[in-house]
Structures are given as structure tokens and as C-alpha cells.
TrEMBL record:
CDD domains: AdoMet_MTases. GO terms for molecular function: methyltransferase activity. This is Methyltransferase domain-containing protein. It comes from the Eukaryota. It comes from Helobdella robusta.
Length: 272
């Protein structure tokens, strides 16, 4: 989990960082394929959607627009209040008054523990958690996954969309962040937390779910002339990151591009 004292500018940091990546385009193609996939036609009837850590909602709304055309309720649980404000603006633009919203400014693991809804009507057809679960400590994630499969997701018709991120071999941003370890004092061991999240598929099974679809992809991060953005991003995660350290780290990137290796998953509740 990320430190709250650097939260104020998160919507801006996220926006700028997303602009450096080609991930949105890749996701659009993947989401279009999912919407056409005969195995996921149930999404066309889905109405209740829960977004976990949606940030500004950029990717979550892409998925909803392409794959969940009949949405009528969107619940978001997001730790950053400024992101929730930005999400609200985007929802108004995106849905034009056709969707009911409920936003909770909370840690998901706390929110799910307090959730008491029981009836099938209160459960969710779709739960989206992109770039959020790998930031949790394993025990927190297991609790969160347990809540999703045991409490929140509808039985056979519920879908949970989430992703993991690899920290090996590629000239990835994670590897660069590891390099920072030599230069700065960690406020939080973000990279190591990501490294602990390499087997989310079996964590999902342990929590009562099963992965029914997966897609691996690599997304580029254009770091050319974006030092101030990189600086803002890493200052978000680590203390004491300076212009000079960023400069040095960026030199290690081939052609000024970094990348992330992502695995995207769809899971359902395991049938008894
Ligand atoms: C890396 S951003 C990803 C945002 C968005 N899902 C995306 O893919 O663009 C992680 C988001 O999750 C939120 N977050 C992190 N841990 C959380 C938690 N335990 N509960 C709720 N929100 C959390 C952060 O505030 C941030 O907005």
C-alpha cells in the first residue's frame, strides 16, 4: 500500500504516467476480443460493477464501455479521495446519467470486511481491479480475494478482472526501481511487494476462485524527455529520489524505453 502523505497529486501523476505507456491501446484490443468471445457473452447482461482501486478510472471505464453495455450501477472503492473526484467527473461524461454510482473512500480490504450485503441483488456481476492487487502484501491480498469470491461476486455469472506484473528479466520499470534501492532509502518496499505477487492464479484458487482466461502482454513506457514525470512517479513511491538518480537510471534504458510485462486474468467463482 502506498503512503498517504504523497497522495495529493496522484490523479495528475497517474494521468501523466499513463500517457507515457501504450497500455491503453493494448487493453482496448484485448477488451474488444473479450466482448466478442463466446465464453464471455454473460458480460453483455451484467449490470452491477465494482471497481477496486480504479484511480482516475481510465482503464476501468474502457472495459465497461466495451464489455458491459448494460451497466446500471457502479460502485468504486478507492483509497485516494482525489482520484475519486476525478473518477466521478469521468463517469458523468461516460454514462450521461444512465448509471447509479456509489463511491467509497476506503481501503478495499477494510471495506470488504465490513460489507454485509447478502442477497444476490447486492452482489456484483463484474469486479475490476487493475494495477492494484499486486501492490498489496500477500496476506492482505488473500483477505481481499477471499472477500471477492466468498462475499461479493455473483455465483456462476460473476467475472473478476485483474492483473499481475512481472518483475523479471525485461528492461522493466520494476528493475529500474530495484536499482533505486542502491541510492535511496525506501519509504515502502514497493518492488519487493510486487515480486511477492507472482502467483496470483493460485492465490485466487486458494480464495475460492478459478482463472478462466489469461492474456500476457508487454507494454512500453516512453521515458524519452519524460524525466520530470519519472521523477514524480518515483517520488510517489520512494523518498529521496533526485533528478540525478533518475538521469542515471534512465541511461540504462535502451532507446529511452522501459517496459512492463503484464498478465491479465479473468476469474470466476469456483463451482462447488
Ligand atoms: C497504480 S494505481 C492503478 C489505478 C487504475 N486501476 C489503473 O489501472 O489505472 C493503484 C490505485 O489503487 C489505489 N489503491 C491502492 N491500494 C488500495 C487499496 N488497498 N484499497 C483501495 N484502493 C487502493 C490507489 O490509490 C491508486 O488509485
Amino acid at each position: 500500500m502506498i503512503k498517504p502523505n504523497v497522495e495529493d497529486n496522484l490523479p495528475e501523476v497517474l494521468n501523466r504516467f499513463r500517457q507515457m505507456r501504450n497500455e491503453r491501446k493494448i487493453l482496448q484490443t484485448i477488451f474488444d476480443k473479450i466482448s466478442e468471445d463466446v465464453n464471455f457473452q454473460g458480460l453483455k447482461l451484467a449490470r452491477r460493477v465494482l471497481c477496486v482501486g480504479p484511480g482516475n478510472g481510465e482503464y476501468d471505464l474502457e472495459f465497461i464501455k466495451r464489455c458491459v453495455p448494460k451497466i446500471d450501477t457502479l460502485v468504486a472503492v478507492e483509497y485516494n479521495g482525489n482520484c475519486l473526484k476525478e473518477l466521478e467527473k469521468r463517469c458523468v461524461e461516460c454514462f450521461n446519467g444512465t448509471v447509479k454510482y456509489r463511491f467509497y473512500n476506503s481501503l478495499f480490504e477494510d471495506w470488504v470486511e465490513d460489507w454485509t450485503g447478502n442477497s444476490s441483488d447486492e452482489k456484483f456481476d463484474v469486479i475490476i481491479g487493475l494495477h492494484v492487487f499486486y501492490e498489496m502484501m500477500p496476506e492482505t491480498r488473500l483477505k481481499a480475494f477471499g472477500g471477492i469470491f466468498k462475499k461479493l461476486l455473483k455465483e456462476s455469472t460473476g467475472y473478476f478482472l485483474f492483473n499481475s506484473m512481472s518483475v523479471d528479466h525485461l528492461p522493466g520499470m520494476c528493475n529500474i526501481a530495484c536499482e533505486f534501492e542502491k541510492h535511496v532509502q525506501f519509504t515502502e518496499d514497493v518492488v519487493n511487494v510486487v515480486a511477492l505477487a507472482q502467483d496470483m492464479k493460485s492465490e485466487v484458487e486458494q480464495a475460492g476462485g478459478m482463472v478462466v482466461h489469461s492474456k500476457d502482454f508487454i507494454t512500453d513506457v516512453d521515458c524519452r524527455d519524460r524525466h520530470s514525470d519519472i521523477l514524480a512517479l518515483y517520488r510517489y513511491c520512494y523518498s529521496n529520489v533526485t533528478e540525478e538518480i533518475v538521469e542515471k537510471m534512465m541511461k540504462e534504458l535502451v532507446d529511452g524505453f522501459g517496459c512492463f510485462q503484464i498478465s491479465l486474468f479473468i476469474a470466476q467463482k469456483m463451482l462447488n
